[in-house]
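Protocol step 4 of 6: record predicted structures for both targets in the notebook before any analysis. Target 1:
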Amino acid sequence: MSNVSVDGETADYSLQNDSLFILVDDSTEAGSQYEVTIRYSGRPQFGVLQNRNETIWSSQLPRTQRHWVPIVDHPQVTMKTTFNISVPSGVQVWATGAKIGEEVLSVDAMRYRFASQKEVPASSLSFAIGGFKNDSIGYGEKKINVAVENSLGSEVDQQAILDASQNYLGSVEEKLGRQYPFEQLQVVVLEDHNGETKSWGASTIFIYKNRGDIDTQLMRGIIGQWFGVQQRVRQWSQADALTLSQTLLIKELMSENSTLSGKDHPKGFTQSLYSVFGPERWNSWQKGVEKWQNESVRGFMRDSISKMLDLDDVISWNEYANFWYDHIGQPLFDSPQFSFDKERSSTQKDSVAYEVHYDLNEAEGTLKLRFTATHGYFGELTTIEAYEVYPGKVDTLEVTFTGKDDSIVLQVQPTINTLQLSSKGYPTLTLDSFKPSSFLINELRKGESVEERAQAARKLGYHSDNPDLQLAIQDFMNQDLEPEVEAGLLLSMADITDGASGTEQVFLDALKSD
């Protein structure tokens, strides 16, 4: 940070943690407005992606914009924008807003300018910098730009994307009865998604070669300009509200298969916060929306979809549910839970799966195991082995359960390190255990196999109500770890911190790692 001015006058400021405090006149009153200019430089370690082609672009993960521009990137914050971005000659820039100019600074440098005369959400600012082959087409008084990464060469039909963009934009406008909300549309086609799940920003769509069908990505991004940017969710966990609207429109406007590919997606990320906009959740909606509610309910949702945009700009699933309840009396206050295979072999019909929740009462020396069936169930008593692990010894005992829900209480010693269940002898049985954090930390330290340690690392994230675990995870991250264990710890940290500042570098390093 080199300079801050308020209404053209240099102002004193201070930096504390992630906040910039600017001193203004003592006579100011609440509600006063100022023009603040901030001059700064930095090397963002999060929020900006770079691939092997040296293309750089902005992430759309939550709270990423603050890492490359000093703003409060909350969905409620909106602003008019002007970007002046200088790059080496031969490199192009595409960004939020309309391209309003480019100039040669020297033999080696160019400057590009993009501006938005309409306020856009701070949480949707985006840009891409790299070597592109670009083309454009008029759309009424507006313009569509398509930039394809040079490395893709003839693998991508740029003209087809231009034509499709024009057609899809028109069909969505006609269905919604509303004009495209921005001056230009920038479509940027890249080789690799680098783990990104949300592929649109304000007036910008990112299409990834390894994400699957280009038409589906394009249509989703176009719809996302209304349901995703103009109307956006308050929390990432509420993504289903937008995905439902996108799905209803894409099912009506496109006849082709609308699923996406999960190829090259980081293993384990399907269970993290970042997956709510990801391909697996998207595909679940594409496969399950027609079974979720009857045709009359879905028909009302389709017919009233334009009215959803009259709700608040920043919404949650609850605003949608209240709208449906007021109009058709359907209490759809919980978003649906889909159960589809994850592009893997389907589960055998005779398989049985239980969740096992551990409830340790140290004061009374008891450990309660609660068995809840998640796929099939045993209709008769089933006995499995359990191993109580103590310092220097392991005690073996039997645990018996049956039915859809069952529980058993074990007497344990105060020094117990962990308890492990074995489904040996039941090849169709899968147990998903949720253990106390002390058990998981012990297994992370002393687990005999990489798989055991990785599972313990991942399950720490389910204790998101215990922020002290962040310190324990950071201690483990300073050690030499197997990739599977490191991935589990990163996902757990994401769950516990919910993307809090200070964890970004670790997450970015993992995305860059092999």
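Target 2:
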Amino acid sequence: FTTQSKAAVLGLTIGMAASYGVDGITVNAVCPGLFESEMTEDTLFKNEEFMRMYNFTDPMSRPGRRGELNGTILYFSSDASSYVTGQHVVVDGGASIV
């Protein structure tokens, strides 16, 4: 269900941006790839086969590190993005382009 839920988030983002833009409300989505987290460190990162496959296909050859989403989130929560709405930004080290 991961693919369907991601598509739903993107559709919801676009729909909400279209509906609330007139009120000056911006709606955007940050789409993270594989990141180090409490959830992944004890599962995915301990699976050697998964890590070999991921390191082969990811252009940056590593998962995202803690804190590497911060800049994107800060951008969307600042006035610098006041004219940006209905967008999704993928932060995945290039994994989605291969």
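Step 5 preliminary note on target 2. Residues 2-92 form a domain with the Rossmann fold fold (CATH 3.40.50.720). The chain has one domain: 2-92.
Proceed to step 6 after PI sign-off.
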